[in-house]
Write a structure and sequence with these properties.
This protein is mainly beta and 71 residues long. It is 10% helix and 49% strand. Strand 2 (9-16) and strand 3 form a beta hairpin. It is globular.
Length: 71
Amino acid sequence: LIKTKKGELMDIATFVDEYSSISIVIFPNLYREISRLLNVGNYYKVKGKVEIKETISLIANELSEYKVKEN
């Protein structure tokens, strides 16, 4: 977790699957909405903007838990 200059919480989380990983930047407005959903081992659907600097990251605009259908 990161505290902004205004004292708000945000996060830069690393999301990992069996193929790769990516840093997801979650700014305070979205973090307030979804922080209770963020748990290790859960699956997520993320929409956002790709940012390429030294590394590739995703600036999250939307994030929701993804429920895996079990057979």
